[in-house]
Amino acid sequence: MARTSSNMLQLGTGAPFFSLLNPLTNKHVTLTEAAGERGTVIMFLCNHCPFVKHVNDEIVRIANDYRVLGFGFIAISSNDVENYPEDSPWLMRDNARKYNYSFPYLYDESQQVAKDYDAACTPDFYLFDAELKLIYRGQLDDSRPGNGIPVNGRDLREALDNVFNNRKQNELQKPSLGCGIKWKPEN
């Protein structure tokens, strides 16, 4: 398992706009359509990564717990599907159904959105406030496949709770760790 860390985009950065295909509905979804009233979590995921598989159930629980509180959730897969066909849009659709994603799981075919967000790994998490300014980026929690630490979403849950309760964000934000995004070969 290759281990790649988040790039830790600068806090305060505005969320880059996007319009991406949702393979489940075969329609495009924009950032503004899926954004939440209180804040928006953008997650870079993929189907095949063992780090994502390890946390998928908790991601769904967090989205279900916080969507009702006014937060939007958006998952994006940016992997090169020619070399990693298990991350194809049609298998993304199957994965969204399998895990009962309550949020759009969007396909970044050009990989431009991943570049705009300086995403490096899967999973990679970004929390933007109501004005779509970055206030948290990094890991879901300290759990990794095989390290024996239970998956509980502690870091992301704390960041969401801080927004909900108008508290200052923790300055210690740990990078996520996972599989590197599978970039297309340069032409």
UniProtKB/TrEMBL annotation:
Database matches in InterPro entries: AhpC/TSA (IPR000866), PRX-like1 (IPR047262), Thioredoxin-like_sf (IPR036249), Thioredoxin_domain (IPR013766)
The segment(s) forming the Thioredoxin domain are 9-165
Looking up Gene3D superfamilies in the UniProt record yields: Glutaredoxin
Instruction: List the GO molecular function terms.
Output: antioxidant activity; oxidoreductase activity
Stated name of the protein = Peroxiredoxin
